[in-house]
Amino acid sequence: MLTAKQITAKFQDSKTLPHVAIKVTQLVNDENSTMQDFEGTIQLDPILVSRLLRLVNSPFMGLPSKVESISKAVVFVGMKNLRNLVAVEAMRDMFKGADDGSGFSPRNLWLHSASVAIITEIVGKRIFGDGREELFLAGIIHDVGLIAENQVAGEQLRQACTLYQPGKNSLIECERQIIGTDHCEVGYLLAKEWKLPSGVLKAIRYHHKVDEAIKPASVVGILQLAEYIAGKMKYPMILDKIEPLPAHLVRHVKSMMANYKIIVRDLPAEMAKAKSLYESEG
């Protein structure tokens, strides 16, 4: 049996989260940061520079002339999109690996995480009028603990995934039984090490907690709603398994069913637009 601290200590990729991603997050949170600070940090990562310029010069941005300066690109893209882009780029390589038939697949988990990030942002804006940038960040990184568990205790994780039966038990219960800890605690420790915002830390730690005290409008509540919607749209955390929505969130959805129906109707187009910004090269 392993503890969350033991898994994070053994997780080799925890040291490969680009220092650029951590630094950009710190700069975004520092009101005294200058454009020179951002430019000096971003230019250390050629891949990020390439994707930033690709984003700012995309049809989505609709700028009249080509932007080739990092500082100008940051101005046009904005802090929110910049941090989202950095988060996606930093996380992408961690979610690699084939599906071995157990139900757990790093690639599937990446699609789930990307979808949840997009849906979290949309639900936050449209249902709660909440445009906090940490919503997308929480969505893209919320299941990183599963990636750490997969590297350190892959066989046990697959046993937990097999044991997991939505409606009868929860994945974190199965993880604790087989591994000794769960991906929420592991992910929380990793995110804390990476110095991510406190709201994101809370979302990672409690996104599987069933508690009436978790308000639908909170980051945790919105993340839980997004995970459920992503599962219904065929982007579940574990293949063919969708965790039921907590009863108090079911009541919330029913009370605003018309609004959620519009979101579900618009989601394919919204996700296609967002994915065009964050898709892999090639």
Describe this structure in words.
There is one protein chain. The chain is an all-alpha fold and 282 residues long. It folds into two domains: 4-16 and 95-278, Hypothetical protein af1432; 17-92, no CATH class. Helices cover 65% and strands 0% of the residues. The protein is built from 14 helices and no strands. The longest helix is centred in the first third of the chain and has 23 residues, at 70-92. The protein is globular. The protein starts with a helix and ends with a helix. The mean pLDDT is 85.
Topology (elements, then pairings):
Blueprint: H1 4-10, H2 19-29, H3 35-42, H4 46-56, H5 70-92, H6 106-128, H7 134-141, H8 144-163, H9 171-178, H10 183-193, H11 198-206, H12 219-232, H13 247-255, H14 257-278
- Can you count the helices? 14
Order of helices and strands: HHHHHHHHHHHHHH
Task: Provide the number of structural domains.
Answer: 2
Query: What class do helices, strands and sheet pairing give?
Result: mainly alpha
Task: Examine the coordinates and then state which fold CATH places here, giving the name of the CATH topology of the largest domain.
Answer: Hypothetical protein af1432
Q: Sheet with the most strands?
A: none
Number of strands: 0
Round the Cα radius of gyration to an integer and report it.
Answer: 19 Å
Q: Which regions are unreliable across 5 or more consecutive residues at pLDDT < 50?
A: none
Helix percentage range: 55-70%
Strand percentage lies at: under 5%
Mean pLDDT: 85
CATH homology superfamily of the largest domain? Hypothetical protein af1432
What is the CATH architecture assignment of the largest domain?
Orthogonal Bundle
CATH class of the largest domain: Mainly Alpha
